[in-house]
């Protein structure tokens, strides 16, 4: 029988696999990015509300906190729309490679939010990430729109993650997720009503395969993944969790190449650029963790 520690590590890697599988679902779901994210957030909101009721979690928060969570919910909605949009106009590999640049953006967003100085090696790593993106862009110019959407998605993801780090100091992940998802649904609904022709009968006309793919996306890849990730962080060091989650693009790209070999076959330069970005992200995490350990030791 595996030890509890091994079970927790296996659970963590399963969650990272689930995160990578999100992009695969984005490829197989036939509807476009905006309705896809609307359905995802509606289903996830309902599932989390059911969990809240079963676990008897208190949802009441102050109006000011609700406003902040609502803004974060709009950010995550835009992040998902641009991410799935990148898959639509390019492919899974491009979307995930660009998603890896999030650590670069976080290194500049964190000092602003937490009011600290930018560290010298973060600038160096940032330059390295830019080089990786440049290599990918030069070799995959046909996917330029997807690259741009992927970079926007990565920036929004980093902003969302840094903000959530602040929110977790005052609220549980379940409460945060619930209000963010509900506000995301409201935001996208208003956008659809004003700019996207409203909720027509065709909007609600889903194929059975799309419905079940969306349900998997909302339940396993969203509601379960959000709650389980918090549980895992109580059992495994946050550094290990964050560093392991940086492997999400690796898992996702490997799955994409296996499942969609014709569409996902990329140039050698793409994989070289992606390797630079992902290696930089991992090195950044390792250095930050070593510095934390030194501070604790002193």
Q: Which labels suit this protein?
A:
single chain; mainly alpha; 13 helices; 82% helix
Q: Evaluate the radius of gyration.
A: 19 Å
Rounded average pLDDT: 88
Q: What class do helices, strands and sheet pairing give?
A: mainly alpha
Helix run count: 13
Describe it for me?
The protein is mainly α and 298 residues long. The protein contains 13 helices and no strands. It starts with a helix and ends with a helix. The model has no long low-confidence stretch (mean pLDDT 88).
Strand and helix layout:
Layout: H1 4-28, H2 33-55, H3 63-89, H4 92-99, H5 102-114, H6 120-139, H7 144-167, H8 173-195, H9 208-235, H10 238-245, H11 248-259, H12 261-264, H13 268-297
Question: Could you write a compact summary of the structure shown?
Answer:
With about 300 residues, this protein is mostly helical. About 80% of the residues lie in helices and about 0% in strands.
């Amino acid at each position: 029988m595996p030890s509890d520690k091994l079970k927790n590590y296996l659970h963590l890697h399963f969650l990272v696999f689930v995160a990578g599988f999100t992009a695969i679902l984005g490829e197989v779901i036939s509807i476009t990015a905006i309705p896809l994210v609307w359905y995802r957030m509606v289903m996830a909101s309902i599932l989390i509300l059911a969990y809240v009721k079963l676990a008897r979690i208190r949802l009441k928060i102050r109006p000011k906190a609700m406003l902040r969570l609502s803004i974060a919910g709009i950010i995550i909605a835009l992040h998902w729309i641009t991410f799935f949009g990148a898959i639509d106009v390019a492919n899974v590999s491009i979307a995930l490679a660009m998603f890896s640049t999030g650590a670069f953006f976080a290194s500049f967003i964190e000092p602003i939010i937490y009011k600290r100085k930018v560290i010298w090696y973060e600038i160096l790593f940032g330059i390295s990430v830019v080089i990786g993106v440049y290599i990918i862009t030069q070799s995959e110019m046909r996917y330029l729109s997807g690259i741009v959407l992927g970079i926007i998605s990565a920036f929004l993801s980093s902003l969302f993650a840094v903000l959530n780090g602040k929110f977790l100091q005052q609220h549980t992940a379940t409460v945060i997720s619930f209000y963010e998802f509900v506000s995301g649904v409201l935001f996208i609904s208003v956008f659809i009503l004003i700019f996207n022709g409203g909720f027509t009968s065709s909007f609600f006309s889903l194929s059975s395969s799309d419905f079940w793919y969306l349900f998997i996306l909302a339940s396993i890849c969203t509601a379960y993944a959000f709650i389980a990730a918090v549980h895992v962080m109580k059992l495994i060091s946050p550094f290990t969790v964050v560093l392991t989650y940086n492997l999400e693009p690796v898992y996702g790209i490997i799955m994409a190449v296996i499942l969609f070999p014709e569409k996902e076959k990329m140039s050698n330069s793409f994989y070289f650029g992606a390797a630079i970005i992902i290696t930089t992200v991992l090195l950044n995490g390792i250095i930050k963790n070593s510095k934390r350990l030194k501070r604790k030791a002193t």
